[in-house]
Amino acid sequence: MQLYDTIGATYAATRHTEPRIAAQVWAALRDARTVLNVGAGTGSYEPPGRDVIAVEPSAVMRAQRPAGAAPCVAAVAESLPFQDQSFDAAMAFATIHHWRDPIAGLREMRRAARRVVVFTIDASEIGWRSFWLTRDYLPEFADLLARLPSLTEMAGAIGARVEPVPIPWDCADGFFEAYWRRPEAYLDERVRRGVSVWARVGPQAEQRAVRSLRADLVSGRWAERNRDLAGLDAAELGLRLLVA
Ligand SMILES: C[S@@+](CC[C@H](N)C(=O)[O-])C[C@H]1O[C@@H](n2cnc3c(N)ncnc32)[C@H](O)[C@@H]1O
Q1: How many helices, marked H, and strands, marked E, lie in the chain?
Q2: What's the pLDDT score for residue 127?
Q3: What is d(CA 81, CA 102) in angstroms, rounded to the nearest whole number?
Q4: If you take atom 26 of ligand 1, which residue's CA is the nearest one?
Q5: Chain segment 130-142, per-residue pLDDT in tens
Q6: Dihedral sign, CA of 37, 165, 107, 142?
Q7: For ligand 1, is residue 133 a contact (CB within 6 Å)?
Q8: pTM of the entire structure?
């Protein structure tokens, strides 16, 4: 059973293409004509004007792909059903933390494509540790990241260079870090259901974090502690692009 067959039914409600991040991913794909999108979900970051094939193991996610989206194969990153070097590029966006074996999946991408572009988080990075949601309300996020290989290991597995990905204050894709300057969003059940972190930490931690954040928003404590965010247009939260 795929996790997203359980939690993915409302994914498309809050998870959309963020154009500034998409532009960075598409630039890293350079002139690739054929692109494999691994862990593709609803296809938010599939580049237009190129021949894309998607790989997505969850039937619930495949069912939410819009009409006219790229053809999608039911498979997993760790065992890609494609011959060596059959794509100009392979990309993976916000998915490798779900893979049973991230390093094996990255090696598979490297095998199947001449270029690899991956959006992920640097688990050892100070950026996410200083994110107020993790720091003050949901320390359990650290336990989830603990099982992810370090960015150095992941980059080393495919010989990638690393680019920082700043997260705009009005990020259109509702991933975990997206609402760093819009804290009220995390009180919205619909927003939380679009992010696997909340399901993975469990209902007790989720309810405690939400209760505590709500109280701090009402009392003004959140605003006081996070005064420095008000003037920022983009934040460094440990999100990275691996490009090989
Ligand atoms: C957070 S979603 C990201 C979807 C899409 N890339 C996006 O940016 O909207 C994570 C996706 O990874 C998929 N996934 C989980 N395990 C996987 C694996 N072993 N190989 C490939 N994809 C996997 C999930 O089913 C889910 O659709």
Answers
A1: 13, 9
A2: 63
A3: 17
A4: 41
A5: 799 999 999 999 8
A6: negative
A7: no
A8: 0.95
